[in-house]
Amino acid sequence: MVTGRIGDWCALFAERHQSGINFALLIISYILYLFIGAGIFSAIELPYEHELRQELKEARQDFLSNNTCVSDAHLEELLARALQASNYGVSVLGNATNRNWDFVSSLFFTSTVLTTTGYGHTVPLSDEGKAFCIFYSIVGIPVTLFFLSTIVERLMDLLSRRPVSYFHRLWAMSRSQLALIHATSLSIIIALFFLFIPAWIFLSLEKDWNFLESLYFCFISLTTIGLGDYVPGETHSMEDNPHPQLYRLAITVYLLLGLVFILVVLETCYELPQLKLLRRRFYKENVRELDSETTNIISRDQLSDQITESADHTHDQLPVISSVLEQADTLRQNGTSTPYTPASGTAANGELR
């Protein structure tokens, strides 16, 4: 008996707080996903890290043994300085050919800052540059988000909403199924033109990259992750790339266009009826009740406005009964002496009706 009551109470509690339970499960699932990802990355990358550390340690010992005139402290100081300069985007290798702060390189930097990609391979060196970067980002990032959302909204009508509506009328298919097919097709097309084809192009231009590294760079860049471990044009010599500025400018345009179309794909998937139905499972009940109540209020207001407009329109169409004095003046002006005969109440009421 007691067990049955507890079961009934648990069922009633779960029914009343279904959205809250779903939301708690979502949080737990996401945290678990983070832990699983951390464990997998640690298991994959930790052996490579140990191997690289060992190789560097052996290389350092070999250098010191072959160059007895160099002390370990001086080598440590040189390496620290080189690493610090590398963190600021200045490499000890090939400084004669690489420039990080000419106009095109600065344009590439501003695009990565405003789109929050942030490769980290080039950073402001001076205090003035760091302060301006803060101010520039505070103003520029919201403006960039507004700019991108405006472009994406226009493209959504052209690439998503209109095609779905057109084929829905043409084929008489279910709109939800048609939207899912369209989102899948659009995702494949965008992935082909902005991930796989550019990766193949970078494979032919970057001699040190394989296809996986090229695809990795495209994906990391267009999703604004921007780890900065792969940046095109960093290892080029003048013989390999005689037009480095044009190359960097083309990459900037590619990143901006690719980001726009990636956002179009994400927005198209976000508007899928299946995802909307899934999201409702995590909404609060009072929010859904409030939305329903607000919708009813708006509907009643609109109905009231329509009734009022209809009444005003009917009132405008009713015949206007002039006063006795106005009729008398009219008769005198016409020179007639026909006496005024008031309409009976029944007739007047009938006209009003």
Automatic annotation (TrEMBL):
TM ranges: 21-44, 103-120, 132-152, 179-203, 215-231, 251-272
Residue intervals of the Potassium channel domain: 96-156, 191-269
InterPro entries for this protein: 2pore_dom_K_chnl, 2pore_dom_K_chnl_TASK, 2pore_dom_K_chnl_TWIK, 2pore_dom_K_chnl_TWIK1, K_chnl_dom
UniProt name for this protein: Potassium channel subfamily K member
UniProt KW Transmembrane helix keyword: yes
Organism from which the protein derives: Cyprinodon variegatus
Glycan attachment points: N95
Polar residues bias: start-end ranges: 331-347
Chief subcellular location: membrane
GO cellular component terms, semicolon-separated: apical plasma membrane; dendrite; perikaryon; recycling endosome; synaptic membrane
